[in-house]
Amino acid sequence: MSSTIADVKLRRGDRLDQPTFHQRYAAMGEGVRAELVQGVVHRPSPAKSKHGRPYYALTGWLVLYQSETIAVTGTIDTTTILAGENEVQPDCALFVAPEHGGRVRVNEADYLEGAPEFVGEVSSSSACYDLHGKKDAYQSAGVLEYVVVAVRQKRVIWHRLVNGRFVEADTDKDGVFRSKVFLGLWLDPDALLKNDTRRLLDVLRLGIDSPEHAEFVQRLADVNSGDLPSH
Length: 231
Description:
8 helices, globular, four-stranded mixed β-sheet, single chain, alpha+beta, disordered N terminus
């Protein structure tokens, strides 16, 4: 790789196309995190414990669901190339495995390409773009469900893609979010915000034990039935 490319740094606010961003990002080596959102470079700040705790809980919640749901996989902090001038690193993503009809693929360089069905972000200092530019990027790419844990606002915001636009979902009467895409993926937002992992995982286990989760698993067992509802 030429020294010209290797010496170029990514600066917050730079406007780049996705191939140029990717080339520069790869040249900077490991230990650097940057994202391209709607053609603008973002450099996340160092993560504090108020970000790390809900991130840890959210990851464990998704891992438990994935462990009980065939043909479903997930990632954390993984470069994901979306449509347009967007290359992001979602905190968490959940998607149907490509071999079971999912929409995400792993390219030759081992990066993800395509829109995961579910994306989760823990937002503190990054709230301004997680809830605006990044939300727009996920929406235009076709992410079906986008959950933001807004730490400073003490809110969990669950977006669903309806007719090509994100709408904020409400919890059910019992205060629980229930995924319309990954059936049985149930989230108690209060438990997540209070770092009550026991309650968080107990509610999820109820979802995993539900009839709709069993039906979903049966549907995914057929390699040709991996298409998920698009609302």
